[in-house]
UniProtKB/TrEMBL annotation:
Assigned EC number: 3.5.1.9
Active site (record annotation): 150 (nucleophile), 235, 267
Protein's recorded name: Kynurenine formamidase
Source species of the chain: Branchiostoma lanceolatum (Common lancelet)
Positions occupied by motif HGGXW: 81-85
GO BP: L-tryptophan catabolic process to kynurenine
GO MF, any single term: arylformamidase activity
Pathway where this protein functions: Amino-acid degradation; L-tryptophan degradation via kynurenine pathway; L-kynurenine from L-tryptophan: step 2/2
Subunit and partners: Homodimer.
InterPro entries recorded: AB_hydrolase_3, AB_hydrolase_fold, GDXG_lipolytic_enzyme, KFase_ver/fungi-typ
Domain Alpha/beta hydrolase fold-3: 77-267
Task of the protein: Catalyzes the hydrolysis of N-formyl-L-kynurenine to L-kynurenine, the second step in the kynurenine pathway of tryptophan degradation. Required for elimination of toxic metabolites.
One family name in Pfam for this protein: Abhydrolase_3
Length: 291
């Protein structure tokens, strides 16, 4: 790979450089401010259980936000944060909770060990175990709905592709829907970019953890799961391409999947606008979970 090719690849996979609202540094700062402020507000206003352990690793923790008079069959929105597998945490991931709990939905923010502490393999294992744990903890729920953003979109897609026989008691969780927002479904282009510096993925690691190579497992595990693939109008072209190609893969295998471009959004507010009850994606999520 030439220096020019590497520079172009890094530009394509630098979502902050494509925002129509702010420059690269400011758009990241704005995103962190919004998700932190809205999470703090949710923690102050809602009934929540924080730092619930789902396993034995230090990072095996999740936060649960419950609606008032929470029903035992409440659907569960499982949020897996982004941050290129190296930033953010569950402590900034409750920003969706106020509008969703108001609709009767339970919200769970999943923590995992970001790089360099966690490898891609570790993170994938953690989110799989978290989903399995929730399935056991809330057996009367009307269903689990996975939502992942950016790196979390990748992890959410890997959850759908799980070999559940190797996770906890081997039972397949009842995942009824997935909202994959500005995700990365093929990790191989990232191996030679700055994104991989803390991850230290080999080509083999990237292939083993690329959901696009395991889409048949989604159909096998969760044939009735509805998948919504979402990206922002001002996401980088590579995020558009990866989202569309993953959608077509699942569609070709007979999955019920749709792909939506949200107008006037970039890689960051396409997800953090879920803090707003009248936002297009918020309404789509609630409609799907309560239908």
């Amino acid at each position: 790979m030439t220096a020019i090719e590497k520079e172009d690849l890094e530009y394509q996979y630098s979502p902050s450089r494509w925002s129509h609202r702010f420059d690269a540094e400011a758009v990241v700062q704005d995103h962190v401010r919004v998700v932190q402020t809205e999470t703090d507000k949710a923690r102050a206003q809602l009934q929540c259980e924080l730092d619930v352990p789902y396993g034995d690793r230090e990072g095996d923790k999740l936060d649960i936000y419950k609606p008032d008079n929470c029903r035992s069959d409440a659907p569960i929105f499982v949020y897996i944060h982004g941050g290129y597998w190296q930033f953010l945490s569950k402590d900034q991931s409750g920003f969706t909770a106020i509008p969703l709990t108001a609709a009767g939905v339970m919200v769970v923010a999943v923590g995992y060990d970001i790089a360099p502490k966690g490898t891609i393999d570790v993170m994938v294992d953690q989110v799989r175990r978290a989903v399995s744990f929730l399935s056991e903890k809330f057996p009367s729920s009307s269903g689990l709905y996975i939502c992942g953003h950016s790196a979390g979109g990748h992890l959410g897609a890997m959850v759908l592709s799980s070999d559940w026989s190797k996770v906890r008691d081997g039972r397949v969780p009842a995942i009824k829907g997935a909202f994959l927002v500005s995700g990365v479904f093929d990790l191989t282009p990232l191996v030679k970019t700055y994104v991989n510096e803390p991850l230290k993925m080999t080509e083999e690691d990237a292939r083993r953890n690329s959901p696009c190579l395991f889409s048949a497992a989604v159909v096998k595990n969760h044939p009735k799961c509805k998948v919504l693939v979402v990206f922002g109008e001002h996401d980088a072209p590579e995020f558009h391409r990866q989202s569309k190609e993953y959608t077509e893969q699942l569609k070709g295998l007979g999955m019920e999947v749709s792909c939506v471009e949200i107008p006037d959004t970039d890689h960051f507010n396409v997800v953090h606008n879920l803090a707003e009850e009248h936002y297009q994606l918020t309404k789509m999520v609630i409609e799907e979970m309560l239908s």
